[in-house]
Amino acid sequence: MELLPNSVEDFTSSEYWSNFFRSYGGENNRAFEWYGDFEVLRDLLVESLRTSGRSELYKRILHVGCGNSTLPAKLYDEGFKDITNIDFSSQVIDLMREKNKSKKGLEWICMDIEKDFGKYVDKEENLGNFDVIIDKGFLDAYLSDNTSKNSSSSKTKASDYLASSMRLLVPNGRYILVTLGQEYVAKALTMEFYNKGLDIIVEPLVEIKDSKFLPYYIEIINKKDTQSTNKTFFRFKGAGVDEIYTSEDQCIWTLAKRLKELSAMYWNNKYIGDFMPGEIKEYQLNIKESRNSFFITVYDTISKKKNKQLTVGLLVPIGEEQDWLYSTRKGFEEICNQAKCKRLIVISRLYSDSEKALKVSKEDILDEISKNISPLALKGSGRFPILTVGGDRNLNKKCIYSCDSKFCKQILVYDIEESGIEKRQMIFKSSPRLIQSEVVIQRKSPERLEFDYLSGLSNYYVGVVLVSSLILDTKNQDKKKNALILGLGGGILASILRKFYSKSILNISAIEIDQKVMNIAKDYFGFSENDVEVIITDALDYIDNSHSKIQDSLDYIIVDINSGSVNDSLMCPGVEFLSKGFVEKLILSLTNDGCIIYNISCRDTKRKEELFNEFGNMISAIEERTGNSKGLLLQSVETGEDEINELWIIKKETKDNIKKVRNFIIEKQLFISNQEGTSSEKCGKKDLWVKRFSNLK
Question: Where does the record place the Methyltransferase domain (predicted)?
Fold first, then answer.
């Protein structure tokens, strides 16, 4: 026969257990030990027995669901001579009585707990007269069946059994439960004891090396004085547990959750060194010395590529813990691909005081966590690198203003000093990885602040201005041009364009959905409404409602709008701004030489490629349908800053001139420095921009 039951009903069948022990023990009289033998439990049991119940050495012990365990005989040899053993298999009881007949004081009773335990408890010689009850695996089996036709519900069975057990105990007596801590067991303990004013101590039996699961040794103490409080608390103790949970009292209502977490962690740790593609494991690390806490995510790549590194760690920047890259399976896979590793360990800091956290150096953090996360690496990893993001800039920034927003959760303004240069940033909480606006600031005096829009420009701004020179050639310009910016942000781009092009040359309008963003642009980024017309509305609605009025009137359209979704790899713009209907309306709004620039920021390189291919097919279809005499040039340009950001450029151009314009845009010519120099014959418009840019600086 099989050693383990085929169904939960077998757990409540005395015939099954009689056959089980006969088959398992056989001629060798082997004992079957649930959740560890006596040697594993000895120190815990002896200590519990000596400190429980009555102070004298004499202890009266009840062993429930004894089976053919050697536990009673071993305790007898330790000096505990009064042990009553209960089981509902008469064959097992007869066998154990005969086997231990020389040990006077060991009593053996055949009993059906569900039917007869209450009567046993009510006997005068038993009620309140036991020092210790030992339940080693019995409760797990007893409550596992809630479907038997002849059985009460598990809740009723649990309540009756546990309440009766506590009635047997003397003051300071203990109910000792050895269990796997399944959720139904933890809930049964909670529901019965939450208002009894008991002490509960939980110790995981990590010494049982050959077990796939983690048993627990749980002591429930019948306190002498229960008048002070009727609430029941529990606490953990034992090797390794204090690194995960504190030893302080915890509310019993969290018991099921904590046991589930600990059991999952044990299972994960047992097999943590094995490579399991696509598996995600999560931990919380509490370091007592510094009182710092970390949330750890372990992910194994599904890629079959050969990777240079077995394991790589990554420290998440503060405030970006919910970003797509650091909180989703696709984000983890993207990092594995970039870091060329099989296993990624993502480390997020849990700080209640974010301002204090920003002052902590990354070196201190890395020193602190490196030794604690090494056991989470794949087998054979040895010392592995822990990567950081963005240098130390995230650790020195100061939040000077914040406000809530219904569009992006919260708007944050930071001042950052980096390599002696002070900058100001606008960040949306909905997209913490994306800098919405950034400008260099110069403090002329404590009261006077200047914004230097042309220093330290990102390649995005450089690219936008360079492409503008394709349209805004002032030498051959006979009328004022019109530019539309979708997404004002801090007004940096609008301010830069105004530095290059006066009002007589270029009319600039900006669409911004959030009045609060507009206010912050004026108050904290030096933006002036005198330079740019700002319309507070939804950009989608504006284009939809105004496209007939603005048709053929815009020379330059810039789409620079945050997606607003922390769970999307596409951070800028939202997918709705790449839809066919919207793009077609933008194209119809362009003049004969007009141009559209999209600021694209996407963390998933594969998705970005797919989006661009779909976008290209859509542009071709629009070109065929509109039947314009000019073609539509579509070109993507990496900004050179990382693999995340690109400019997507749509330009109306004659068929003969498309190749020339494309050559201007690609081959990194957008980002050649002033010193490299290019002849006016090769790239006259760029030289015009370089000269204009140099003069302005």
Answer: 60-174
Pairwise CA distance, residues 218 & 89, whole Å: 26
Which residue shows structure tokens 């302080």? 248
Contact criterion met (CB below 8 Å) for 496 and 465: yes
pTM: 0.53
Q: Identify the DSSP state of 328.
A: S
Interval 148-204: pLDDT, tens: 444 557 788 899 999 999 999 999 999 999 998 888 899 999 999 988 989 999 998
Report the C-alpha gap between 465 and 690 in whole angstroms: 10
First-residue to last-residue Cα distance in the chain = 89
Name the burial class of residue 379, with classes exposed (0-12), middle (13-18) and buried (19+) by CB atoms within 10 angstroms of its CB: exposed
Three-state DSSP state, 323: coil
Q: Tokens 């509305």 sit at which residue? A: 537
Cα 672–chain centre separation: 41
- Residue 345 neighbours by CB under 8 Å, 6+ apart: 296, 297, 298, 311, 312, 313, 314, 373, 376, 377, 386
- Ramachandran angles phi, psi of 468, nearest 5°: -60, -25
**C-alpha to C-alpha distance for 585 and 659, rounded to whole angstroms:** 25
| Domains parsed from the chain with CATH numbers | 8-22+38-269 (3.40.50.150), 279-388 (3.40.50), 459-694 (3.40.50.150)
Mean pLDDT value across the chain:
80
d(CA 59, CA 132): 8
How is the beta sheet containing 448-452 ordered, strand by strand?
A: 398-405, 409-418, 421-428, 435-445, 448-452
In 3D space, the residue among 138, 72, 128, 60 whose CA is nearest the CA of residue 99 turns out to be: 72
Q: Who contacts 257 (Cβ-Cβ below 8 Å, separation ≥6)?
A: none
Which whole number is the average pLDDT over 484-488? 95
Q: pLDDT band at 674, cuts 50/70/90?
A: very low
| 3-state SS class at 398 | strand
Contact criterion met (CB below 8 Å) for 108 and 96: yes
Using CA atoms, how far apart are residues 132 and 60, in angstroms rounded to an integer? 7
C-alpha 506/C-alpha 111 separation (Å) is: 95
Under a CB-based contact definition with an 8 Å cutoff, are residues 11 and 141 in contact? yes
- Is 634 in contact with 615 (CB distance < 8 Å)? yes
Residue with tokens 């002498």: 224
How many Å apart are CA 668 and CA 656, to the nearest integer?
A: 22
What would the two tokens of residue 110 be? Answer: 């055949």
Between CA 147 and CA 152, with CA 149 as vertex, the angle to 5 degrees is 70
pLDDT at 473: 62
